[in-house]
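Hi everyone, sorry if this is the wrong subforum. Our group has a chain we'd like a structural model of before ordering constructs, and none of us has done structure prediction before. Sequence below.
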Amino acid sequence: MDLLELILKLVLAVALGGLVGIEREASQKPAGFRTNILVCLGSTVLMSLAVGLFQNGQAAPDTLVRMAAGVVAGIGFLGAGTIIHARGMVIGLTTASTLWVVAGLGLVIGAGYYVPALIITAVVIATLVAFRKIEEMYLRKHIFHYHLKFHDSPEILSNLKKISFHHGVKLERLSLRKEGNFLVISFSISGPEEKEQEFNDSIMNLNGLEEFKVD
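Answer:
Right subforum, don't worry. Here is the predicted structure as tokens:
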């Protein structure tokens, strides 16, 4: 196996996996920048190894197919770890699907198909970014604006973020200000009314809640 070609594959895997990871990180997903890089890098290394063994006559012709199948099967366990099932809702399917696609991207790079890898990356990012805009404009049904007042505590914001992650909602336009011994938090979420109600129930159980308003 040519060393320069291997280095090119590894650099390309880090760059393209990182581009997808940046989008996931910006969207506050559990599998973000480093995770996507490592998934892409790992599948690239494994496929490069299979290609090298085959070219040196140390492996059978079906080695590439079996290696690809092994990577796809293995990434399923990692993807399953990003999926959360809570209160009748399934969260993380897009993140798991992205990891699966990024693993496939690494296989393409490892096999030496550089131009298709660039095209695949562009399509993945366009799907995650552009289609999310379409989803936000046409598929989301409700936007809720929250105004909460808590007795000031260093744990409030952390607990609020944990609740939002648990229910699969993103806190948008988050702002905080202090009023004496109180902390006033304002933010927006979007989604169906059922999810909003479950989110509300969890907030109502937070310690130190003094005032709760939803527009």
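For your construct planning: The longest helix spans residues 114-139. DSSP finds seven helices and six strands in the chain.
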